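Q: Got a minute? One more chain.
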Amino acid sequence: MLLLDGAKALYTEVLSLVERRLRPGALIVADNADFCPEYLERVRSTAAGYMSTPFAEDVELSMRIG
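A: Always. Here it is, folded:
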């Protein structure tokens, strides 16, 4: 599991740094992800290898699928 809670503008960059280590089924929880539209676009794209949904008020729950 990967928890993202920090500088929202860096979420996409942080994901890029760890992505190759994420196995299928790995969960990513991102707090306040709505402040980083590029991150949301990426994890909501099945073509990018993710399945994602908003969870709670301002949390995004994503799973690596490929």
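A: The chain has a mean pLDDT of 92.
Q: Perfect, thanks.
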